[in-house]
Amino acid sequence: MTYGDLTLNFEETSTYVKDRVLDMGQVEFKILNCLIKHQGSLVDRKLLHSFIWGEHIPSERALDPHINSLRKKLRHSVCDLKTVYGKGFSLIITQGKDAF
Q1: pTM
Q2: Parallel, antiparallel, or unpaired: how do β-strands 6-9 and 2-3 relate?
Q3: Are strands 20-22 and 79-84 parallel, antiparallel or unpaired?
Q4: Domain residues for 73?
Q5: What are phi and psi of 16, to 5 degrees?
């Protein structure tokens, strides 16, 4: 699955920005999967929780460290992870970001 310069490889459970592999955990991979499936649309926290953990959500704030980590990992991608406070998250394609 590809969005912008991000590629998710489901066979290897790996993520690439351009041709570089990102070190990513399972939760981060699932977050990206869900956000890419929704192609730039706003995805609320409840949907992400359900997509990642099903009915057994560890805590209401369980996403926060994973979202913060993903932002750092995507710093060289044309994709930005945006938060709309109180609403949810979206992955959007931007221009003018630094290359590797």
Answers
A1: 0.89
A2: antiparallel
A3: unpaired
A4: 2-93
A5: -125, 140
